């Protein structure tokens, strides 16, 4: 090797200096390589990689984002499908549970209380009570349509046979016109319309006739109590000044219209149209309907207004009369929406915590309390929203959702709700009195979940319904059936020993429908009476429909005459 000579440096000295430099440079480059290499292994190295990579190398990252986006969309779809599958599973599970629950309630009633009105599940015997006079089998009549809808056909046959062979309408005793109407007349009508079995029609027309004497008053407003054997009727002892109750005489319309339809006898319709005529005519304080009316003078007896007990189903039957008439009963429509205006102006309130509720009104003074019974109003407002004035439709649907939300809020901590809850002295949808803490298997909150589900398909309503199923199983199921509980706030529940007939007719049916497809008893074709018995909408426009199939010159499309 020839080294160039540099001035002042010997060859051997230069060689030594060169090798020192070489070692130093080698060391330096090793250090730099190590440092750069280490950078790539730092946890946040991705950012540095981006800086060090050229644009062309960076390109695949953009392609990767599109892929990522596609991948994310695919994952989201898969997740949605999983949720749908899960909710189908939950529906199947819910259906399965509800069938088991209905069967359990029915089997226990059959075993321990057959033919009596209700089951006492703790003492495992039957209860007759005083509401139905001499009538028996309230749980059987209330269960007929639920059993049929749930496809529990063996059990339905047992119920039908009992009606055929054992339902005795020639009974004496003090019976409530309202309760007999909503449970027996409603239950038999539904059973007839669903199954077409003539035995139900025969029985219900016979029973309808027996209720007519209750209307023999100076005004035609019926009294609350009737002896089905003798036809004598009188007012409830507890109702002030011999008055009749708004929710009682105002909850006959749907059933009586169908009695006239089935019998071709206008008398039933005339009786309820007469009630409506009087209510329409009479002066109403602030547009509101008080709960007590004299059947003698036709005047209000007290100024207590409520969408809870004593008032509730009167409002429900106004909108349902309109819907059941295939939206032809304009008078019912007008009365419903005017009543709603008055309710909005006078009863709808907002709590400090932001909950919307329906207060009670006592001669202008508000009682900031809502009964469990008033929770049906979520569903009622919901089904009535569509036919409200254009500018009110959304408001009514929102109000329906808000009331249902408030009622759900009252369902805590057992996930079952008290008989009444308050919004005063710091209370937010909680029962403040010991005497209002009980839950007797009532349906109203679940009823509103069912309607709101059908109207909005918001999954929260099914979630809330499922909470109720779990709570019923946990707190109300006992060895001998289902029982109400005395205190929804108590950690150790105490049972009231009563399986109400409306648990079978309403609570379990509404839960079952909540988890069913909308075409099981579609709201376009059926209305539910206040005991959840489905009654068909009376379609009057079939002639128009037939005509619409004809050519303009009225010649039938197929050239043949249309049989009507
Ligand atoms: C049912 O008999 C009916 O829903 C009625 O309109 C009110 N009370 C019970 C259920 O809570």
Automatic annotation (TrEMBL):
Which residues act catalytically here?
Answer: 179 (proton donor), 312, 419 (proton donor), 444
How would you classify this enzyme at the top EC level? hydrolase
A Pfam family matched in the record: Glyco_hydro_47
Which InterPro entries does the record associate with it? 6hp_glycosidase-like_sf, Glyco_hydro_47, Glycosyl_Hydrolase_47, Seven-hairpin_glycosidases
Cite the binding residues for Ca(2+): 530
Disulfide bonds listed in the record: 375-407
Per UniProt, the keywords (alphabetical) are: Calcium, Disulfide bond, Glycosidase, Hydrolase, Membrane, Metal-binding, Signal-anchor, Transmembrane, Transmembrane helix
List residues traversing the bilayer: 22-42
First-listed, main subcellular location of the protein, grouped into a coarse class: membrane
Instruction: Tell me what topology the record assigns in the membrane.
Output: Single-pass type II membrane protein
Which pathway does the database say it acts in? Protein modification; protein glycosylation
Q: Which Gene Ontology molecular-function terms are recorded?
A: calcium ion binding; mannosyl-oligosaccharide 1,2-alpha-mannosidase activity
Q: Which family does it belong to?
A: Belongs to the glycosyl hydrolase 47 family.
Protein known as: alpha-1,2-Mannosidase
């Amino acid at each position: 090797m020839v080294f160039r000579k540099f001035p002042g440096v010997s060859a051997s000295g230069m060689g030594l200096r060169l090798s020192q430099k070489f070692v130093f440079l080698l060391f330096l480059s090793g250090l730099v390589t190590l440092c750069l290499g280490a950078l790539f292994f730092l946890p946040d190295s991705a950012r540095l990689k981006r800086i060090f990579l050229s644009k062309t190398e960076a390109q695949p990252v953009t392609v990767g984002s599109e892929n990522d986006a596609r991948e994310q969309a695919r994952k989201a779809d898969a997740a949605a499908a999983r949720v749908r599958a899960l909710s189908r599973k939950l529906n199947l599970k819910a259906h399965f549970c509800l069938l088991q629950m209905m069967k359990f309630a029915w089997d226990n009633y059959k075993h321990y209380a057959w033919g009596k009105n209700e089951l006492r599940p703790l003492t495992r015997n039957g209860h007759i009570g005083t509401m139905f006079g001499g009538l028996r089998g309230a749980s059987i009549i209330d269960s007929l349509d639920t059993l049929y809808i749930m496809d529990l056909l063996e059990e339905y046959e047992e119920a039908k046979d009992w009606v055929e062979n054992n339902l005795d309408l020639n009974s004496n005793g003090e019976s409530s016109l309202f309760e007999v109407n909503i449970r027996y007349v409603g239950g038999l009508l539904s059973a007839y319309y669903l199954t077409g079995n003539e035995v139900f029609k025969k029985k219900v027309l016979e029973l309808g006739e027996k209720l007519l004497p209750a209307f023999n008053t100076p005004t035609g407003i019926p009294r609350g109590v009737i002896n089905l054997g003798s036809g004598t009727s009188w007012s409830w002892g507890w109702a002030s000044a011999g008055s009749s109750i708004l929710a009682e005489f105002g909850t006959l319309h749907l059933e009586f219209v169908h009695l006239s339809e089935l019998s071709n006898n206008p008398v039933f319709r005339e009786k309820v149209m007469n009630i409506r005529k009087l209510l329409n005519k009479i002066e109403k304080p602030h547009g509101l309907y008080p709960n007590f009316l004299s059947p003698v003078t036709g005047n209000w007896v007290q100024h207590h207004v409520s969408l809870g007990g004593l008032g509730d189903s009167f409002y429900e039957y106004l909108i349902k009369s309109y819907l059941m008439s295939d939206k032809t009963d304009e008078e019912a429509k007008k009365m419903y929406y005017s009543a709603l205006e008055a309710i909005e102006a006078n009863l709808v309130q907002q709590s400090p915590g932001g909950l919307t509720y329906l207060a009670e009104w006592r001669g202008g003074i508000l009682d900031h309390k809502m009964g469990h019974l008033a929770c049906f109003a979520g569903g009622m407002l919901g089904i009535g929203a569509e036919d409200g004035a254009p500018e009110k439709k959304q408001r009514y649907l929102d109000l329906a959702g808000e009331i249902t939300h408030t009622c759900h809020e009252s369902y805590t901590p057992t996930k079952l709700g008290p008989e009444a809850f308050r919004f005063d002295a710091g209370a937010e949808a909680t029962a403040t009195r010991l005497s209002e803490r009980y839950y007797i298997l009532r349906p109203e909150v679940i009823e509103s979940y069912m309607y709101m589900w059908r109207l909005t398909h918001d999954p929260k309503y099914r979630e809330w319904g499922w909470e109720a199923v779990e709570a019923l199983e946990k707190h109300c199921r006992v060895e001998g059936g289902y029982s109400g509980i005395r205190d929804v706030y108590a950690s150790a529940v105490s049972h009231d020993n009563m399986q109400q007939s409306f648990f079978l007719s309403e609570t379990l049916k509404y839960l079952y429908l909540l988890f069913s497809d909308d075409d099981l008893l579609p709201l376009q074709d059926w209305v539910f009476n206040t005991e959840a018995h489905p009654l068909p909408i009376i379609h009057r426009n079939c002639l128009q429909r037939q005509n619409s199939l004809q050519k303009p010159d009225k010649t039938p499309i197929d050239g043949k005459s249309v049989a009507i």
